[in-house]
Amino acid sequence: xxxxxxxxxxxxxxxxxxxxxxxxxxxxxxxxxxxxxxxxxxxxxxxxxxxxxxxxxxxxxxxxxxxxxxxxxxxxxxxxxxxxxxxxxxxxxxxxxxxxxxxxxxxxxxxxxxxxxxxxxxxxxxxxxxxxxxxxxxxxxxxxxxxxxxxxxxxxxxxxxxxxxxxxxxxxxxxxxxxxxxxxxxxxxxxxxxxxxxxxxxxxxxxxxxxxxxxxxxxxxxxxxxxxxxxxxxxxxxxxxxxxxxxxxxxxxxxxxxxxxxxxxxxxxxxxxxxxxxxxxxxxxxxxxxxxxxxxxxxxxxxxxxxxxxxxxxxxxxxxxxxxxxxx
Length: 328
Ligand code: NAP
Ligand code: F7E
Prior knowledge:
Rossmann fold; 7-stranded parallel beta sheet; 2 domains; 11 helices; binds NADP nicotinamide-adenine-dinucleotide phosphate; about 45% helix; binds ligand F7E; globular; UDP-galactose 4-epimerase, domain 1; alpha/beta
């Protein structure tokens, strides 16, 4: 039975990846931070077969202890401070967790695998935020990185450190440069989930309006369940490498609003949406659109859920949850 250790197990991707690996017969270990973490219950009820280990990406020895306990064949480093807007408010902490945390994870795996540097296959959760002020359209593995936030800068550090450990020590370390991916499990601070929650509440008469920032930004949005399959495929390759994972389509926040409101029967959303400068960012990533040709040809990966189905899935899920919470 193959064994996997996942950091960021309590997050959106951690849950989908653990589900996928369990369905493939893996023994799955989740690395979770914090004393009395409120999300422990979520993992234990959703995926009772996952074995939880505690630690923190800023604490190298806790990662080493988790490696000793789980003895994994595959290590998926998904843990990070991942909310871009928050990264300006806490740039130092973001650099320590999202940037230096990757170095800690790589170093722990290297020390643990001293006898055979490729004993544990390593996945790093790199991000399309690294492209920032995009230098080519669409963006692929060769596009120059130009991050626009402390989060993006920290991800660039983790990305190059992963490449450096692969080249320096012969580790089987791959980076997935994943474009935005969403789901009903997305945190409510991210724009897609913020909209799907608000639209469902507005349609049920539980909320009057919704405040947003920049409506013109464009993202290449896919479904998280499809994207974790690409992570697994990367670690099944004989040779480690870096891959862009994207739908190769781009849509604006306005287009997301169009579909989400139409899904609940509201044709004109303008009376319900307010623009609030509090949600504007000091520097914006205006346009992201990926070119995932390499992943499609080498890994045989392709996304299954298209943009309208993703929006419908998220609004339907929030409608059901809001009805349950309101006793409707
Ligand atoms: P998420 O829902 O925000 O989950 C982040 C996870 O990191 C949580 O489980 C969190 O645990 C954990 N974490 C935070 N600080 C930690 C620390 N100091 N030590 C250990 N764990 C820590 O993020 P996601 O959407 O699942 O994304 C997974 C990864 O992919 C992240 O690295 C993200 O930056 C990257 N990524 C995401 C996207 C996307 O569109 N979703 C795209 C590209 C890359 P707590 O529960 O304790 O907070
Ligand atoms: O913002 C705009 C905002 O926070 C998307 C993370 O998973 O994907 C995610 O980062 C866009 C931005 O995601 C609001 O200005 C407008 O242009 O949903 P988001 P993100 O910043 O793209 C990447 C790939 C990651 O790696 C990250 O970890 O939406 N926007 N109004 C808003 N965004 C938010 N959150 N809230 C608003 O009210």
